[in-house]
């Protein structure tokens, strides 16, 4: 259900929340509004069977409230399965703030948002996502303890993005091992789409390994910066999906594997950091499987960030964070092999394991 297909006069007949296609029995959805600071946010709590719902806050200029709601529903659901498959005792949640992070984000707005998080008494724990920085979480920390991803100087584990990038790199190597029989990425043609916090750190790993890296971003400034640091090639074309490449790494926003792009993609492997890369998990997962494109499930390989923030709750040290993140390699390889043997899409193979873990805990909790 989207705004495109509903005329204004028919809106009254729509079920705008529980009727959304992306609604998946979410436990709680909280709409937050503050006139003074201009805050408009939605907190989505998908599932808390394994623990409190932890997931970052995204600030984005959504085209409509529907888009924002849809995003928070999809993202919070993804967090449930990400934590479950990574073996963390966390549920899935996420928050979106509607607005331009560059011009509308103020300390007052972040504090007010933190108060809304606090009002949930720990059922939802926040962290940073797109449009948020560690310093923003430090501000949220002034009004609630239910926040992670705060600065190291304030007792946090710091910016999770480099750890996320390392996990994506591990997942990509596992996918290469599965596809090519070797996990060495030297000379592989890798396109990184979105060179923000995670994308840049991924480029660094890839360049160090000798991969041929092409970068794409909507920000020319970022492209120049990353090119000058690592010597990557800036993508000059206008349809990245049609390009010849070995590996496509989506590291910007989600749903880039969709009805329009999927038939053009020539990559052998898709492995990136973006959440919800498949616009339609079932349909596009199946199409990738049929076309022999190895898809490393996003919620599995981009879990480094959540491992990093989980460390703040469990007091892990750096070595344990790195060990757990490195293990993404083994889990990815196991899931790709499991999918092949059981003739499943890789997404479903990963999802089944995550769902089993939640179901087992649900039964234990019930006894
Ligand atoms: N930061 C983390 O630890 C983490 C963890 C898990 C998942 N993710 C996901 O990874 C992705 C990247 O996260 P990030 O923290 O690097 O975000 P970021 O905001 O730092 O970077 C995103 C980059 O993508 C670029 N971009 C936006 N739209 C684009 C487009 N259409 N084409 C090309 N580039 C585009 C932006 O200009 C920016 O440089 C997001 O989807 C995020 O949800 C991040």
UniProtKB/TrEMBL annotation:
Quick one: a GO biological-process term for this protein? Answer: amino acid metabolic process
This chain's source organism reads: Winogradskyella wandonensis
Residues covered by the Glutamate/phenylalanine/leucine/valine/L-tryptophan dehydrogenase C-terminal domain: 158-364
NAD recorded as keyword: yes
Entry annotation: catalytic residues? 94 (proton donor/acceptor)
| Positions that bind NAD(+) | 194-199
Recorded family membership: Belongs to the Glu/Leu/Phe/Val dehydrogenases family.
Cite the entry's keywords alphabetically.
Answer: NAD, Nucleotide-binding, Oxidoreductase
**Domain of life the protein comes from:** Bacteria
Q: Which Pfam families match?
A: ELFV_dehydrog (PF00208), ELFV_dehydrog_N (PF02812)
CDD domains xrefs: NAD_bind_Leu_Phe_Val_DH
Q: Can you say what this protein is called?
A: Leucine dehydrogenase
What are the protein's GO molecular function terms?
nucleotide binding; oxidoreductase activity, acting on the CH-NH2 group of donors, NAD or NADP as acceptor
Against Gene3D superfamilies, the record matches this protein to:
Leucine Dehydrogenase, chain A, domain 1 (3.40.50.10860), NAD(P)-binding Rossmann-like Domain (3.40.50.720)
SMART domains cross-referenced by the UniProt entry: ELFV_dehydrog
């Amino acid at each position: 259900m989207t705004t495109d297909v509903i005329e204004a006069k028919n809106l009254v007949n729509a079920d705008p929340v529980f009727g959304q296609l992306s609604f998946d029995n979410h436990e709680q959805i909280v709409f937050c509004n503050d006139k003074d600071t201009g805050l408009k946010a939605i907190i989505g709590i998908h599932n808390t069977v394994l623990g409190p719902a932890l997931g970052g806050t995204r600030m984005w200029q959504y085209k409509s409230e529907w888009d924002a709601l849809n995003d928070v529903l999809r993202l919070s659901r993804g967090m449930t399965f990400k934590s479950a498959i990574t073996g963390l005792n966390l549920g899935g949640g996420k928050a979106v703030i509607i607005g331009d992070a560059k011009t509308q984000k103020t300390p007052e707005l972040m504090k007010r948002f933190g108060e809304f998080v606090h009002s949930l008494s720990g059922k939802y724990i926040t962290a940073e996502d797109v449009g948020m920085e560690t310093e923003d979480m430090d501000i949220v920390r002034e009004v609630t303890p239910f926040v992670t991803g705060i600065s190291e100087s304030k007792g946090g584990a710091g910016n999770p993005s480099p750890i996320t990038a390392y996990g994506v790199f591990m997942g990509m190597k596992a996918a290469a091992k599965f596809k090519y029989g070797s996990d060495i990425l030297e000379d592989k043609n890798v396109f990184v789409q979105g060179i923000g916090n995670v994308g840049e750190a991924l480029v660094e790993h890839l360049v160090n390994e000798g991969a041929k890296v092409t970068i794409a971003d909507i920000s020319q400034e970022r492209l120049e910066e990353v090119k000058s640091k690592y010597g990557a090639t800036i993508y000059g074309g206008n349809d990245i999906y049609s390009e010849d490449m070995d590996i496509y790494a989506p590291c910007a926003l989600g749903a880039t594997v969709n009805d329009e792009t999927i038939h053009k993609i020539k990559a052998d492997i898709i492995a990136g950091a973006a959440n919800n890369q498949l616009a339609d998990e079932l349909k596009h997962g199946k199409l990738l499987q049929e076309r022999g494109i190895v898809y490393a499930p996003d919620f599995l390989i981009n879990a480094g960030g959540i491992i990093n923030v989980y460390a703040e709750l469990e007091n892990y040290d750096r070595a344990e964070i790195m060990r757990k993140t490195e293990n993404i390699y083994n889990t990815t390889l196991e899931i790709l092999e499991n999918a092949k043997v059981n003739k499943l899409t890789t997404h479903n193979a990963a999802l089944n394991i995550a769902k089993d873990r939640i179901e087992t805990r649900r039964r234990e909790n019930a006894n």
